[in-house]
Amino acid sequence: MIKEKIHKALLEIIGEIPAGHEIERIKGGKWGDFSSNIGFLLRKRGDSLLIKKLSEALPKDKDFQEVKLEKGYFNFRLSDEFLRKGLQEAQAADFGRGSWGGGRKILLEFISANPTGPLSVVQARAGALGQALSNLLRYSGFEVKTEYYVNDSGTQVELLLKSLEERIKELKGGKAEIPPGGYFGEYVKEIAAEILEKGIEEKREYVIDRILNQQKASLSAFKIHFDYWVRESSLRPRVKEIVNELQKKGFVQEKEGALFFKARLFGDTEDRVLITKDGRPTYFATDLAYHKDKFERGFSLLVNIWGPDHHGYIPRMKAGIEALGYDPNRLVIIIAQQVSLLGEEKILKMSKREGRIITLDEVREEIGTDTLKFYLLMRKSSQGIQFDLEQAKKETEDNPVYYVQYAHARLNSILKFAAEKGFPTESYLKDPPFGLLGAKERELMIGILSFPDVVKMAAEAFEPHILTYYLIELAEVFHNFYEKERVVSENRELTRARLFLSFLYKKILKEGLNLLGIEAKEKM
Fold first, then answer.
1. Among candidates 436, 438, 431, 418, which has minimal Cα distance to 502?
2. Which is nearest to 17 in space by CA: 46, 45, 41?
3. How far is CA 339 from its chain centroid?
4. Cβ-count burial 24-33 (b if 16+ within 10 Å, e if not)
5. Backbone angles phi, psi at 123, to 5 degrees
6. What are the beta bridge partners of residue 331?
7. pLDDT exceeds cutoff 80 at 348
8. What is the pLDDT of residues 23-82, one digit of tens each?
9. For residue 360, what is the DSSP state?
10. 293: Cα separation from own chain's centroid
11. How far is it, in rounded angstroms, from Cα 28 to Cα 456?
């Protein structure tokens, strides 16, 4: 809302916005409310006349109380009338919602772990990220569906089955010889015991369903749900169709008995195997069939969240999509980097195969669903995350999720107290005395009105951490205000004005937390 106003004003005057343009919040408000680097960018390319034009025209805009050029940066101070109108708009139920998505259909696929063991905390990050992103995109006007791709075929499942057979042999008195790359986890022993006890003959189906149901239960407890679950095995029959299509287009060649996709024609570093010399389709071939299926279901944009070991896989998938006749820009791939936990002064490492996995369930039970989600959403997806489990359990201002939730609970308490003192909701929502809100409340007002811009920025960038840090800043501004000023006082008109602001602040905090998939607590 605010940044869009500044951007629009600049665009109307100079006709275009140079690449690299940024609008930043000025904390404390000493030099203004927001700063634009437009002057610096124009000076860099020698457009001194445009800078002069902006310097003359911008201060005339009635929505700006003051506009000053300082060392290439235009600093904006918003008018009281602009803030007043904005606060009136903020009362609307749909405040912050966008329509720029235009109803376009997005399929968001995330986690998609092999059904070979419990979900790890790294996969929990993909889960938190995917859920928050789907909420943000829906909020911005997209039609979003979420999907979990079950890799129930291929090498890893075969290794799991071989590991399981060895554990069954061990339970029968033999010696287990887990194959290289196999799975050593205790859960494999537990499943082997169940199979023996129940006399299960269809081991493959049983173990996959057993682990998949466990993963679904973990996700449900983590408050993450999917619209669709698609099994890789259901797409295997389509691989031949994909290979035939690529062959007809001249994009396949045979080498040493295997079929290769000519990925280098589309910018990849090397050609990629589709069918091995013993006739097995590769993961890549199946993934191409899967993504063609996604496009055929009518989605205009595919968004995949992958783990940290998949970065090198992106060029070949983009190449394959293009070879099949689709715009590769319609496939967006987000890499969710590694998660490290600090516990007892040591970094705990995870490995399903070695049996040292730190599971989603273990961490969630240790620190709680909301805390885990918040910590997992505090960094850009491309950055690794490291956090201390002990700090995450503390109910202090050093714990960011507690800090934000406490701000919401404190605001709820203030509004309840006000009602007891004769200030029911209608008394301050109807004709609040905006004129009494001044410098002391200015940061609160700007924080509220920044919400639509933050939501749009986070959705456009596919980066929910932008919203997470905005909520932390909101909480900080409110706690600082609360420590210095009374909301409910003997001055009834000032009380009404501040209660109106408190109501909106609570509303924005709750909406923001909901978008992250985190509870806005009423009491703490």
1. 418
2. 41
3. 15
4. ebbeeeebbb
5. -70, -25
6. 302
7. no
8. 999 988 788 999 999 999 999 989 899 999 999 999 999 999 999 999 889 999 999 999
9. H
10. 25
11. 24
Residue 147: Cβ-neighbour burial (10 angstroms; 0-12, 13-18, 19+): buried
Surface-to-core class of residue 93, CB atoms within 10 Å of its CB (0-12 exposed, 13-18 middle, 19+ buried): exposed
Position 356 confidence tier, pLDDT thresholds 50, 70, 90: low
Tokens describing residue 251? 């994009």
Percent of the residues in the chain that have a pLDDT greater than 90, as a whole number: 85
Q: How confident is the model over 364-377, as a mean pLDDT? A: 96
Q: What would the 3-class secondary structure string for 465-512 be?
A: HHHHHHHHHHHHHHHHHHHHCCCCCCCHHHHHHHHHHHHHHHHHHHHH
**HSE (side-chain half, CA atoms, 13 Å) at 324:** 26
Model confidence, pTM: 0.93
pLDDT digits (tens, 9 = 90+) for 100-149: 999 999 999 999 999 999 999 989 999 999 999 999 999 999 999 999 99
How far is it, in rounded angstroms, from Cα 162 to Cα 254? 31
- Rounded to whole angstroms, the Cα distance separating 101 from 140 reads 6
Identify residue 59 by its one-letter amino acid code. Answer: P
* Sign of the alpha-carbon torsion through 355, 358, 360, 361: positive
As a dihedral over the C-alpha atoms of residue 263, residue 268, residue 270, residue 275, rounded to 10 degrees, the angle is -40
Instruction: Note whether 397 and 420 are within 8 A (CB).
Output: no
Cβ-proximal residues to 104 (8 Å cutoff; 6+ apart), any chain: 142, 143, 300, 301
